[in-house]
Amino acid sequence: MLRIAVPNKGTLSETATAMLHEAGYATRRDPKELIVSDPRNDVEFFYLRPRDIATYVGSGALDVGITGRDLLLDSHSAATEIDSLDFGGSTFRFAGPIGRFQTLQDLEGVRVATSYDALVRDFLAAEGVTATVVRLDGAVESAVRLGVADAVADVVETGSTLRKQGLEIFGPVILESNAVLIASRDDVPGLETLRRRIQGVMVAHQYVLIDYDLPAELVDRASAITPGLESPTVSPLRDTGWVAVRVMVPRGDMNHVMDELYALGARAILVSAIHAARI
Ligand SMILES: Nc1ncnc2c1ncn2[C@@H]1O[C@H](COP(=O)(O)OP(=O)(O)OP(=O)(O)O)[C@@H](O)[C@H]1O
Ligand SMILES: O=P(O)(O)OC[C@H]1O[C@H](OP(=O)(O)OP(=O)(O)O)[C@H](O)[C@@H]1O
Ligand SMILES: [Mg+2]
């Protein structure tokens, strides 16, 4: 039985649970439930704090887990990233009072507050900068105003938390992070099925199906607009001058693609959602 760690709280929790549900797995009904068994799929879910997930997986106590790349690296756990997931995106950055710092070297000798102390220490050491890292549990943006640090290093999504505290980003990107699937080893039995199912959910989110009718002589030009994953499906229509085309298109390109197809001469252009996929 595959033992899977899932975030029980925080930013990643809801989307991770929704993704597993869409992938056909049992999920908890009550947020107080910490273990959910799913015998039909031969898996068991453990709802844990996202910061602890890499520790459980790295120790081998659990086989796989969903957490953030930043949390994985900060944990120094032996778990490895198996797949990058399409949610929980953020960057990890230094920030300081407006105008105070310009480059990474300006951190030499100052105090940097963060909840990700190992990640920040590793980065500073690799860059040859010596600074004092002040470990805080959260809301680190307040540390400068309250005088316990000169700068901060934290998760930035929109940047609005920093701005509200009169801070600005400076220096290099410490890390680009998002939710990741991690594992204790890459040959855990059952892992491949989980990966394929999760991949299918991501494809279903990222792509739509487009169907359209097209004068047969325009197939090559239409295929250049909608090449599909392998190649478009082209079927005959009763009117032999026309064909029907079915193809997958990235969701974000959908409207531009419809405009281009219409301008080319395609008609009856229909878009449908994909509910599940195995690619
Ligand atoms: N806006 C965001 N705020 C915090 N974490 C985010 C954000 N966007 C993505 N993440 C990612 O979520 C993970 C943090 O999980 P965590 O459970 O600590 O979330 P949280 O919202 O900070 O919860 P809490 O503050 O209650 O501990 C990290 O991998 C982080 O990169
Ligand atoms: O760039 P933004 O969109 O403003 O998002 C980033 C902020 O969100 C998170 O805080 P969270 O609410 O998780 O509180 P915490 O700092 O106590 O963890 C993170 O730690 C940043 O403070
Ligand atoms: Mg937080």
How would you describe the overall organization of this protein?
Belongs to the ATP phosphoribosyltransferase family. Long subfamily. Residues 49-198 form the ATP phosphoribosyltransferase catalytic domain. It is found in: Cytoplasm. The longest helix is centred in the last third of the chain and has 16 residues, at 191-206. The mean pLDDT is 97. Helix 3 packs across helix 4. The strands form 3 sheets. Strands 2-3-1-4-11-5 form a 6-stranded mixed sheet, sandwiched between helices. The chain has 9 helices and 15 strands. Helix 4 links the parallel strand 7 and strand 8 (132-135). The protein has helices at residues 13-22, 50-59, 69-75, 117-127, 142-145, 160-164, 191-206, 219-225, 254-264; strands at residues 2-7, 35-38, 43-48, 64-68, 80-84, 90-97, 111-114, 132-135, 151-156, 167-177, 179-183, 207-215, 233-236, 242-250, 267-273. The protein has 3 domains: 2-87 and 178-189, D-Maltodextrin-Binding Protein, domain 2; 90-174, 3-Layer(aba) Sandwich (D-Maltodextrin-Binding Protein, domain 2); 207-273, Alpha-Beta Plaits (2-Layer Sandwich). It is of the alpha/beta class and 279 residues long. The protein binds adenosine-5'-triphosphate (ATP), 1-O-pyrophosphono-5-O-phosphono-alpha-D-ribofuranose and magnesium ion.
